[in-house]
Batch of 2 targets.
Target 1
Amino acid sequence: MASKRAVQVLRPTVNGFKASSVNIQRAVKPQITTRNLSTGIVRPRKLTRVPTTQIRRASSAVPTSEGQLGRTGLYELHAKHGAKFVPFGGYEMPVQYSDLSIVDSHNWTREKASLFDVGHMVQHDFSGPGAQAFLERLTPSSLSTLSENHSTLSTLLHPETGGIVDDTVITRLPNSFYVVTNAGCREKDLAYLTEQLDGWRKEHPDQTVEWKVRDNQGLVALQGPLAATVLERVLSEQSAGALKTLYFGQCMPGTIKGTDVEVLISRGGYTGEDGFEISIPPSATEAVTQFLLDSAKDELRLAGLGARDTLRLEAGMCLYGHDLDDTTTPVEAGLSWIIGKDRRAKGGFHGDSIILQQLKKKSEGGGVTRRRVGLTVEGAPAREGAEIVNEAGEKIGNITSGCPSPTMKKNISMGYIKDGSHKSGTEVQVVVRGKKRKATVTKMPFIGSKYFKAPAPEPK
Amino acid sequence: MAARFSVARAARQLTSSATRRQSPFVCQFQRQQVQQRLFTVSAAVREKKYTEDHEWIEAAADGKTFTLGISEYAAHNLGDVVYIELPQVDLEISAGEAIGAVESVKSASDILTPIGGTITEVNSALEEKPGNLNKDPEGESWIAKIAISGEPEGKLMSKEEYTAFTEDA
């Protein structure tokens, strides 16, 4: 049974915040540097508006392979705001803060703006003449058509099987690809990328690829309808102006007002709201975060993993390790849209024969046996592990995430269901604590997304 | 999935400290010490006791019916309760069984009983207003009443012991 004891709310096994496989021993040491990269990010020469005590390098540290929990550069700031910490992705991360309950924090994000520390995620840069081709071998994304300062959701794939190693966002910067992967997959991804890069270098010695991980680089997500208003206040006049035409899926370098601190601002996020993810040099992460909070005392609150999970679920977004894993292909996961047009035609990525076959019509031997769907469930919320059954009581799928939706006031879930039962409106049953509950396959996102989109289709 | 504390059922560590129902926030040490001398070990079972799984039980005056609920600590940590599953009246239960569940936004928790017997009454009002469990979990928002068929099992703690237990957690 998917039941947890109350006290485990404080521990890692809570649904949706599971500390993932951080203990996998890495076979090969990947190249990691903590140096900043050629992406326009420079160390601040001066920082005004913040006391010098906050500019010191925070006591951040990445988790070790021995299982030691890491802390982001914002750990102390979280503690000061009454954070309740849980182990997540190898880090001690805030699940909620003392000022708001999870539901209040969720609603606050939908109505105003919230700031999430996502500095536990892994920020990579791939550069060099072979970078694009290398990443196109690993992912089904069409990076050749990805414009500069544009991002795309993608997946790192296993060779042959096309199973998802991790989901990721890839951004084309002027001189590199900026790639953000999940904290929970840190060790696995680093081992995978090391192995893949070794193979690439042997096969393509002329097409060099440089890979760097921005260790301790800060990353915060500013999400909610007031996110843009809040962010403008802490940016230089020029950056604030540029923000007005920064659309969903785009990024820009920005300068923090009154300082030389440069950040990378990407418009998008994990809540379905308008918002930004802001990558900040380690030395300025705490100061910039504090500056944001101080500049919007009435509008902005810190939010933790608890609200992040319910928000992303309402937005129909996957959490790796739950809704996606090594055995899931992008087609099964309902992520066929990330597979680029030219990639469908030519393939050339890991698992292409399986994935391209799955994309074909059923009459041509294509299709998949299971699909990721959304469900609304009556009565008790159906959480990870609950079985989906049909009229006859036969198992036809399982739930991978679920919660009571604070916005819809209904129980929502995500899961995998047998092909054929996946159409929205299909009535099924979900077994929670031995009892069958009525459930209906429901289109995702459960609530409409509110992205700040470009007024007209953009010329490529 | 059934990650749950293993109850040390073998060890019936019934301690002799006993307190009357009291404010959940204040430790009434002096009173406790006085009462400790007045009760025998078996009588202590009748006083409000807490389990390591964060339920409480309290005997009615007849000593045969117990009221069961979840602790203030549990209710607080669960956060906003959105759904409660109560047992059927007349259901026969054994100590250590899950007799229902509490769902909050972040988690689902079984309600475990440390005593066996028969369910005589459930707090149906909670089905209509599950959020009330957050307001008065150790009073109005009790979960079920149980006619006992044996002695409680597992470790039971007094208010003070339980408070210390949750502070260590």
Note: Residues 29-168 of chain B form a domain with the OB fold (Dihydrolipoamide Acetyltransferase, E2P) fold (CATH 2.40.50.100).
Target 2
Amino acid sequence: MSKYYVNKFLYTIDRDPEWVASYREDPRATVDRWEKEVGGWLNPVEQTSWLEFTAEEREALATHDYVWLFEHGAHFFLNLTLFIALFDEEYAAEKGPLAFQTEMAQKLGHWTGRDYPSVAM
Amino acid sequence: MAELTAVLASTHHPFYYKATTSPEDQRPPYAADWQRKVEAYRETLTAAEPDILVMVGADHFHQLWLDNYPQFLIGKQETYDATFYNEEREFGIPKYTLAGDIELSRYMHEELLGKDFDFSVSHELKIDHSIICPIITVRPDADLPIVPIYTNIFVPPLPSPRRFYAVGRAIREIIDSFPSDKKVAAIGTGHLSLELGGPRQFGEHGPDPLFDADAIEWLSTGNIDAILDNVTHESMAGAGNATHGFMDLLLMMGIAGPGVHADYVDHLDLFHTREMYMTWYPNKTQEQLDAAARAAATANASTGPIYASDPAWEKFRVTQEQA
């Protein structure tokens, strides 16, 4: 698991409204574009040559699979905040306040009482 | 020398601003009670008549990032912008511009290094909601210069609880020796038991009310021995995956000092988490104690420690025994 790279994705998407909108609308294409335009760059000039997703990581990000990401040690705060950005408004309008957050908790319910996957790297 | 007139340790909650500023008919049912308690707590700071605020918080991956993540960091600027795009988006928190007290930042940084606390420094720090939330709650005019201090409660491996406490003790000594006639208040925010992005998030209560009961007793009695005996990174994770923010409250207790009882203690069960509002007056005046007593009467708070034996916690013990 390239935890750092997955977290870098969540972090850099979440902080930019254009990337958030893109990731919501077309996650698979956004992951591809992000790897070219953002993921491999330390700053606008310097490239990082060695960072890449595993096939499973790319698929999880391309399918908005926050349960898989939690289970493989993506940072809980990034994983929560970005998916709130994607889904909170639509869920709240349909089912009331915090409906998305509650559903996320339910989908992770099988982890209650167990040690969670570590976010340490 | 400067005078430390108040130490505040509180939880921070980014929902507070929207919950209490939305049109009345759109406010959540808990908003009125919450606002009453927060506005009472605010009076405990006002009574300290501070000139400078030393503010302790933790960046939530807004600026500080995993390519270079500090354990402890101080800002050293004359001005700080605050509130990031994704905080406006998620919480509706407005942007602020805060003045910085660069003289105290510089003194604090040098003295911390002199005491072997090797702080990182930022000269372009943007403040996030760990510091703006308490500005909104206890100093909404945002009219005082700040010295921001960030800790790592987020990126394991984390510094130990013992280290957070020791940093607090050092900050206390440094404020007390700051060559100035200013009055300084120290305000730090963190969390009691808290779950974010995990199965226990946004439940009926916080993830571990009995941890909260112990935590409030330990903090409000300055019981550092009990904390160091009972609180580890693992035990905090057991109480909720984001409970490590408790260490910022512990740091504030370090500023107040060992065995020192808090002069104002309040808490509120805000469904998915418990809010806590605590103030110490290190150089107590009758005016401060009177202000705390008035605030406590308004908020139904305590002017001294709240113990884990308090009847407020009984219902949670029953629940746990049944489980």
Note: Chain B has one domain: 3-322.
